[in-house]
Each structure stands twice: as structure tokens, then as C-alpha cells.
Structures
1.
Amino acid sequence: MPISSKQFAKQLITWQKIHGRHHLPWQVSDAYAVWVSEIMLQQTQVSTVLNYYPRFMARFPTVTALASADIDDVLSLWSGLGYYSRARNLHRAAQYIATHYGGQFPQHAALLAELPGIGRSTAAAIAAFAFGQREAILDGNVRRVFTRVFAIEGWPGNKAIEQQLWQLAESLLPDAAEIQPYTQGLMDLGSLVCRRGQPDCGSCPFTQDCLANQQGRQRQLPTPRPKREIPQREVRWLLLYDTEGRVFLEKRPPTGIWGGLWSLPEWTAEHTSLAQRLQELAVIAEDAAEAPAPLHAVTHQFTHFHLTAYPYPLAVRTRAECRESASCWVNAAELAHIGLAAPVRRLLETWMSSLF
């Protein structure tokens, strides 16, 4: 028989007070600090966020400071953290809060959920931690805990299963006075104990109550996403460099993969020749009649496809002029101060250090 909602909350809170995390830098009542951490923690491990959060908060200590920042500065501090739409939405939401709320966060989850990049679960977490609101969260870790403890079948991404989990999440909530340790407990339990691949059932406060544990089905739940073929995408990158040790970068469109970040110009099958692409960039290169041999391919896995990029280094005789904020020439020292996708940054740092 499933554990009662009252007992579930009681056992979780007791466990969290003894075994949970209590000294994370964002465990404060400041809504801005909580919000930044929640956005960073979306699809990202705590250990990774701990490397980014202090630097970000030192550079943008308040929502108004973030709102007034240049998006390039925001993306440069986000570089390597991935899912860059989070950074763009963070910036947009800060500007909205500064303009429409006078720099003060709305205190209700429904209003928070209207801000860019803040979904229902993130809004609930901010409302719970910053304002003590009695709201239910349902991130990936929480879904895993619920599907195992209550043996809920079906892929959690399915609308019907998701709605079932939301109803369960709301039914398990304790009184508002205990909402913060309860919410933190759910996060801690899913992250530290009820892990995806190696659940530590012996350390779980629900060892005796978990239906998946009773049935020996911990590794079968949650139900995996239905298998689908992941598309493969190939591109060519132009690694243009001059005699001063600078490389040519273009800013990517504001939406799509690596939106708003600086990257290498792409040369794809859409272009009939390398010469045509160079003409578009207003570049005259050495030995451009034939494509040079590419460097080792760069691979990167996105959520919906796998990317393989082939970098082609090419020395230039006549440099293209920078087009305002759309393109630029940078040296190795300047790489640290601009927003670059992690694979591009690694490629440039390694290649430039060996060449120059």
C-alpha cells in the first residue's frame, strides 16, 4: 500500500534535516539568488553550477545589475554551461522585472511563471524558497522519486503521466511552515540518493515504503522515453586567421543553437565552393582555390541531434572588416571575455596556443 501523503512529507523533512544539503551558496531567502541558481540547475548538476554561480553573482549581484548588463557579458560568464537560451531568458526576465516590477520579484508562482525561461516547477521553487509559498515542484529528480516510490508507470514526458505526477506532487505538500525543507528534501533525495543509474536505496528514507524497491524495479522506473533515431548534422567551420594571431568570428543568430554566441563561420553544402563563402565574408585567403585539409572533427551532442563540425584553417591576406556586432577579429587573450560555445572555445584555445 502506498505511503500516505502526511507520512511522506514527515519522513522526507526528517531525512533532509539530517542528511540533506544546507550550505549551498544559493540557500538564502533572496529571490534573485534563488532564481539564478534554479535556472542554472535546469538540466545541470550541482557540482557544475558551483563553478559558475559565484562568478555570475559577483559580476551581477542584483537583478537590476543583470538587467543593465550587455548580453555579451552575460553569455561570456555562461560560456561552457550549455543551454544558452537559459542565459538569454535570464537577461530578458531581469529586464522585465526591472521595468515592470521596479526590480522587485513578484511573490506568487503564477506571476513568476509568466517570466521568460521560468516554467511551472521553477516558479514554484522560487516561491517556496524565497517567499515560503506552498507550491509543488516537479523537476526531473522529483519525477524520478515519485515514479519509484509510488510505482507510476509510463514515460513522465507523456501529458497524461505528467498530469498524474503534478496531482501527486500537490497532494503530498506539507503545511507552508515546512515547505522549504520539504522542497529541498525532494531535490536532495533525487540528486543524492534516488539517482538515475545507481539508486542508493539503503540510504533512502522510503526504503520500506518505496513500491519500486519492494518490487525490485528501481532501474525500470521511471519508464524510459520511447526510443527514436537521433539525427546527425555535419557542418564545416572556417578557421580564418591573420598574421597578427587573430581569428575571425561571427555572431550566431539570437535564436537556435548557441544563439547569440560567437562562433566560427560555417561552410555547408549550401555553398557551392569555398571561394563563394570567402567572397561573402569579404576575405582573400592564401591558397583558397582548394579547400585545405580539415583539423580533427569536433563533435557535440545536443538534445535533439548530434553535430559534427570539420574546422578548416585558412590564412588570410586581406582581412574582412568587422561588421558592428555581427563579426570580429579576436586574439587568444580576448577569448576569455566573449561568449563562446564550449566546443568552439576548446578548439580555439588549443589550436591558437599551438599555432601562435
2.
Amino acid sequence: MAETTEVAAADGRPPATRTQHAIRLLVLLAACGEPATPADPADAVKAIRSELRLQAMDFWMRNPDYLADELVTLVEAGKVEASFLNVAWSLLNDPEPDLHWYPMPRWFYGAYEQLDDAFALLETYGLATLKRTGRPGYKSQRNQFFLTRAGASAAVELADEPVLGWYAKQVKLVKKVAGDDNGQTLKDRQYRQATYAGTELGLDIAPIAPHVRQRLAAMHITTAASTTGGQA
């Protein structure tokens, strides 16, 4: 099964580069990783212990419409305040998130793109490290991803960069949406979206912006009605 390390945008834009992918992984480790333990590599400060979880969160980083859909779901469930509807709307309509939209193909376990090349770039600069356990090709194989002290410092510096600072802001929303759910739970949540689940193996998962706009419109009407005594 051949999978590329660069994904061309559907509208003809240049493909996402290995550097862009590496930056996404870096900020995900910094924002969404759990504290490292004494048993982890000596220089590690954060860890994501499931590739499934990392892939699921990378999908939301790259697909602002799916991220917006999750925010709407959280508002509906009463898990976050209604102001996140405005955040979701911005994800669909502001130009910056769309500039960072890069679709992912669907494989057997959902959205997937090989991480090796991008993570190797982080390892080259001492920003992160990877630990593999188990036998390659077997279910027992497990990849754990670690952020180093240097990587943590780099992630802080990114937040102040005029262009790259977008990643630091976007990852906060991904963290809000992902919560503490494990990788399988995140994938199960993504599969509840019909477009995602219905994508043929090997094809890019299509956008769902029109669907999310419909949900947002309905939520705004409901919110308005609840604050005016039911008058829509």
C-alpha cells in the first residue's frame, strides 16, 4: 500500500511539504502530549503514546471544516460555551484556516498519512524522538512520540511567529475537541461523519463545509430563540 508524504490540495495549490507536516506534529506534541515519565527517553518532556490519536488530531489540524463540526457537536452537548459557534464559523469563513487545508486519504483505520519523513525531520533537529515497540506489521507494534526540551522551546517560539503562529492557535482548538479520548475513540467520532465514513479507501476525504454551515445556522436560531423566550 503506497502512501505519499505530500498531499496535493484539491484546488491545485502546491502539496503540503514535509516541513509543514513536521510543524503540525511538533505543536500537537507540545499542546496535546501527556507529561513524560522517568521510563521515557531522557530528554523527553511530553508524549503521545498512540499513533492513532496523533493521526486523528492531525486530521483536525488539516481539515478546519471537520474541526468546526466537532465544535458544533460540543456546543450541542453542552460541553463548551455557545461562543464556540463563532469560532466554528470563523474556521469555515476566515481565509487563514483554508490556506492550511490539506486533505488526508482514508485507509483501513481512517484518515492516515505516513509520519516517518516528517518526524525524521524533527528528530534531525533534536526536537522530538520516536520509540517503536513490538514487531513491524503486527498489531502488537506500537509507536510512541516524544517531545524534547528543545522541541518544547521551539513550539513556544512558534507562537510568536507572524505566519507560523497560526499553528499554535489552531492546535488549542484541536486540544479542546480531542480532550483525553484515546486514539480509537477519536477515530470512532470521526467515522460518525457520513462523508468521512463513506470515502473509498485510498481517496481523499471530501470537505463538509456546507453541512457544517447548515448546522451552524440551526444552532444560531436555537440560541436566539432560547434567549428571547422562544421567539425565533
